[in-house]
Write a sequence for this structure.
C-alpha cells in the first residue's frame, strides 16, 4: 500500500503556488502495537495554515522544507492494533496533507472519534469541528453574546462566519454579515440565518452600517481586520465587544506578527468602554463536549445550518487554501480525499 | 456673601488659554429647604475635563458658552437646611469651578461625605476619590491583575498612574512606570512603589521594554495611547490585558472620537490572544465603599503611597488643566481654593 502526501517545497510568496509543495509517495509501514491506520476522507482548510509554511510566523513551530504540511482531517480506521480504535471508526485529528495516517491516538495527533450522528463525516471538520467550535466559543464566551445584541460578522460566508448567523439567532440576537459577492450574501440570508448582509465590495460599508445599525453595533465578530475593522469601529456601541478571530485582509508573507494596515479608529475602544479580544480555540478544548452537544442538537432541530465547499483530491489542497485568501470559498472549505 | 466662578468663554484651540474662561461674581442666594452651602477647599483636574469644553466631544453633554465649568471638588458645609449635612461636614461632589456651591445632595452633584480619616480632605479628590478608584478598578477589575504579573504603566506619575505602583505591589505584582522626566521617575521609584521606570523622552522605549520585560508585558495600564501604545504592543505576552484608561497623547480639539495617530500594531491583540478594554469609573459607583475601605487601610499600613501637586487659587484652574497635557504635574493635580 502506498501513501501520497504533500510536503513543503518552498515558502510562499503571495498566493500559494502548486510548486510550493512536492507530492511524495511512500510505502505504508507495518503498524506497531497501539497504532492504527487511517484512510483520509476529508482535509480541512483554514487561513492560519498558511502560517505553518512561513518561518517566524509566530503561531506554532514553522514547518521545515520537506516536512508534511500540517492540517486537520477526518477519516476511517482501516486497520488497528489499538484497542481504543476499531476498524470502521470515523476519527478526526491532526492528519497532515496525506491520504493515509498512522496514529497511536497520542496528543500529537489529538485523535477524536467522530460520533455516529447521521451527518457526513466532513462536518467533524466544519460545523461540528474546530471551525464550528471557534464560532461557538468566540461568539458566546469571548463575545459574551446577549439577547437582543446587534451583531456584525466579517467574512460571514467563511467557515467560522457561516455558523454565526444561526448561533446569534438561537440566542435571540440579530447578525448582519459582510461578504464579497451577492451570491454569498444571498446564501447567508436564505440558508444561514443571517438577518441581513452587506456586500462590502459593491456597497459603501460605512453608509450601510449607519443604515443597518441605527443603534450601533454591540458585537463585532471579526475575521478580516484592517480596513474593514477600521470602518466598523466608529459604529460600535458602548460596551461593545470585538472578537478578534482572524485578520485575513492583512496577513502577510512575514507571518502573524506583521501586517500592513494602520488602524485609525483604535481609540474608539477606550472611548466607548468597549473590549477587543483575541482567543485561541485550543484553549477551549476541555469544553468541546458542551459545544458538540449543543450544536448537534441545534442541527437536528433545524436551528443551526451549515454549508460546505468541497474540492476534490489531494492535489487540489494548495489551491483550496488560496480560495480562502481570494474569498472564493462559500462556507467551510474542505477537500475530499477519498 | 459673594461667589466667584469660572464660566466657559470660548472653545479651546490647542492648549487652554485663561481667556477661554471668564471670572464671574454673584451674590450667594438664600438656601431653600433641603439645601446646604459648601465652601470649596480643593478642586480636581483630570484630562477628560477638557472635553467638557468641546462641542461634540462625545463623552458628556458639552458645556454651553457662559456655563460654569464642570469639575469635582471637596469642601466644607458652612450652612445647612438639609438634615443629612451638618455644618462642618467635609463633602465632595460635582462642584464646578467655583468658590461656593449650593447643593441639595441630589444626583446632579453626587455629594458624598468625606470620612474623618485623619488625612487631608484633598485625598478625597485623589487617591481616595474617583482618581484612585480609577486606578483600583482599572487595575484589579478591568486588568484582572494576577500575582506575579509584569505590569507597565504609562503616565505613571499622573493622578491615576501614581497609585498603580503600590496597588500592583500589594498584590505581589511588579509595575514599571513610564514618565517624561528623571525627577518624576525618581519619585516613582523612591516614594510610589514602582519597581523601575523608563524616561520615554530620553531613553529608547522599545529597547528599554525589551530589557525590563524579558518575559513580556502581562498588563499594560495605558493613560497615553498613540505612539506609546504602538511601541508597547509588540512586547505584550499571550493573554495580556491592555487597560485603556486614557489617551492623553492623542486627545484633539475635536473631542474623544477623533485622534491623529494610526496604530500599526493593533493586530498584536488578536495574535497574542490578548484583551484591550476601556472602562468608565462611574460604572463602578456601587463598589466605591469597597475601594475606599481597602485603599484607606493600605494607606494606614504604609503600603499605598500618594503624591499631590497643588496649585493655588481659582484663577489658576485653566493653567492647572494645561499642566496635565504638558506632563508638568507630579501626582494628582489639584488646586487649593480656600
Amino acid at each position: 500500500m502506498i501513501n501520497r502526501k504533500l510536503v513543503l517545497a518552498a515558502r510562499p510568496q503571495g498566493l500559494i503556488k502548486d510548486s510550493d509543495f512536492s507530492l511524495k509517495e511512500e510505502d505504508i509501514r507495518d503498524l506497531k502495537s497501539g497504532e492504527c491506520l487511517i484512510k483520509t476522507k476529508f482535509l480541512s482548510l483554514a487561513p492560519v495554515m498558511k502560517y505553518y509554511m512561513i518561518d517566524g510566523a509566530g503561531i506554532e513551530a514553522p514547518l521545515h522544507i520537506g516536512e508534511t504540511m500540517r492540517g486537520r482531517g477526518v477519516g476511517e480506521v482501516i486497520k488497528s492494533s489499538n484497542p481504543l480504535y476499531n476498524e470502521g471508526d470515523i476519527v478526526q485529528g491532526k492528519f497532515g496533507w496525506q491520504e493515509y495516517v498512522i496514529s497511536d491516538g497520542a496528543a500529537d495527533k489529538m485523535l477524536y472519534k467522530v460520533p455516529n450522528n447521521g451527518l457526513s463525516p466532513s462536518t467533524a471538520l466544519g460545523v461540528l469541528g474546530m471551525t464550528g467550535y471557534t464560532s461557538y466559543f468566540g461568539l458566546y464566551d469571548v463575545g459574551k453574546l446577549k439577547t437582543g445584541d446587534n451583531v456584525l460578522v466579517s467574512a460571514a460566508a467563511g467557515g467560522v462566519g457561516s455558523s454565526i448567523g444561526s448561533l446569534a439567532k438561537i440566542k435571540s440576537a440579530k447578525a448582519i454579515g459582510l461578504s464579497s459577492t451577492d451570491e454569498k450574501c444571498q446564501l447567508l440570508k436564505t440558508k444561514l440565518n443571517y438577518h441581513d448582509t452587506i456586500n462590502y465590495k459593491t456597497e459603501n460599508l460605512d453608509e450601510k452600517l449607519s443604515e443597518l445599525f441605527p443603534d450601533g453595533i454591540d458585537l463585532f465578530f471579526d475575521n478580516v481586520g484592517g480596513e474593514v475593522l477600521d470602518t466598523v469601529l466608529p459604529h460600535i456601541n458602548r460596551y461593545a465587544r470585538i472578537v478578534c478571530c482572524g485578520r485575513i485582509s492583512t496577513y502577510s508573507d512575514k507571518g502573524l506578527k506583521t501586517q500592513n494596515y494602520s488602524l485609525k479608529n483604535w481609540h474608539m475602544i477606550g472611548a466607548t468602554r468597549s473590549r477587543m479580544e483575541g482567543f485561541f480555540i485550543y484553549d477551549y478544548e476541555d469544553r468541546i463536549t458542551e459545544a458538540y452537544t449543543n450544536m448537534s442538537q441545534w442541527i437536528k432541530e433545524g436551528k443551526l445550518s451549515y454549508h460546505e465547499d468541497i474540492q476534490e483530491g489531494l492535489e487540489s489542497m494548495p489551491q483550496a487554501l488560496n480560495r480562502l485568501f481570494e474569498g472564493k470559498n462559500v462556507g467551510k472549505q474542505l477537500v475530499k480525499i477519498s
Notes: The longest strand of chain B covers residues 36-44. Chain B has a mean pLDDT of 94. Residues 130-142 of chain B form the longest helix (13 residues).
